[in-house]
Amino acid sequence: MRLKANLALLFVALIWGSSFITQSISAKHQIAFLFNGACFLLGGLVLIPFTPRKTKVSREQWKWMLIASLILFFASTFQQFGIFYTKIANASFLTSLYIVFIPFILWIAFREKTHWMDALSVAMAVFGAFLLSTAGRGIDIQLGDSLEILGAVFWGMHVVVLGKFASKFEPISFASGHFIITGIANLIIGFFLEDASQFLAADLIFATLYRGLLSVGVGYTLQVWSQNHTAPTATGLILASEAVFASFFAWLILHETLTPIQILGCVLILLAVLFSQFKGRK
Fold first, then answer.
1. Best CA proximity match to 36, nearest among 21, 26, 48, 46
2. For labelling alongside 161, which of 23, 99, 197, 201 has CA 20 to 30 A away?
3. Exposed, middle or buried by CB within 10 Å (0-12, 13-18, 19+), for 84?
4. Cα 5 from chain centroid (whole Å)
């Protein structure tokens, strides 16, 4: 069963990595809020049939779903706008920094002690992000990369909230509910700020269906099932391969390339993510 769970997580990483391509399609049309809104709403609706019958949503669950939705809104917004101005490889590797940020978010919010390896991981990740964003040309951090790093902080907050509070409630209903809330909020803002007629484009329709059904719907469901059968450390390590898959698909489909220095930056970020998982907690 553990082998099946690990293979499922690898499939999730592949889906999430390839989903960055759909976000680049949205960026081509200069649409962020409407795209995120449609994807999260679709993904949330897909999860409803998997919710156990007679599940009751308490007032406490509504509160934490709203908080998780707000964090998810900012995380996905910064990530999507970041892709407007940077490469898919940059976006995926910088997004993976959320794994490194989580221990420090826990320390700030809950005073949980951080391991010395977390500090080392952050140092490696910061240097790797610097090389990836500047290509070794000096202090010239690109706007898109800055947005991705900021988004990674919110992704880390999202993981912490889910781990600390969502675990108290039925997981599928919580996921579906906060995806739907995030989707509706994005759609409301998008209808005022963006051109809804862009969704008539065939490539954007495909991108929305792919990300909404597979990345949000199927990906999350498989992750929940897999984490019941494999260790948290293994989960983090396998899902970290999302950035590698994203870079591969960006090279294969979009013909994006990185300089040797940028590749070194990607390696350092990936090593930081992996290194942060190899530690014992007291």
1. 26
2. 23
3. middle
4. 20
Distances (CA, A) of 119 to 115, 210, 278: 7, 37, 13
Q: At what angle do helices 143-164 and 59-85 cross, to 10 degrees?
A: 160
Q: How much is the pTM?
A: 0.85
Q: Are 193 and 33 in contact (CB under 8 A)?
A: yes
Structure tokens belonging to residue 54: 């007679």
Q: Can you tell me the distance from the alpha carbon of 139 to that of 130, in angstroms, rounded to the nearest whole number? A: 8
Tokens linked to 196: 């809804």
CA-CA distances (angstroms) from residue 246 to 87, 90, 93, 234, 240?
A: 10, 10, 9, 20, 11
Q: Cα–Cα distance between 238 and 12 in angstroms, integer?
A: 9
User: How far apart (Å, rounded) are the C-alpha atoms in residues 76 and 36?
Assistant: 7
Q: Which residue has the tokens 């390896």?
A: 117
pLDDT digit of tens for each residue in the chain (282 aa)?
777 877 888 898 899 889 989 999 999 899 999 999 999 999 999 988 888 887 788 889 999 999 999 999 999 999 999 999 988 888 888 888 887 788 888 888 877 776 667 677 777 777 777 777 666 665 556 788 899 999 999 988 988 888 777 778 888 888 899 999 999 999 999 999 998 888 888 999 999 999 999 988 888 778 767 766 765 556 666 777 788 888 888 888 888 888 888 888 888 877 877 776 665 544
Tokens 């826990």 belong to: 106
Q: Distance between CA 91 and CA 93 in Å, rounded?
A: 6
CA 226 to chain centre: 17
CB atoms within 10 A of CB 235: 18
Whole-angstrom Cα Rg for the chain: 18
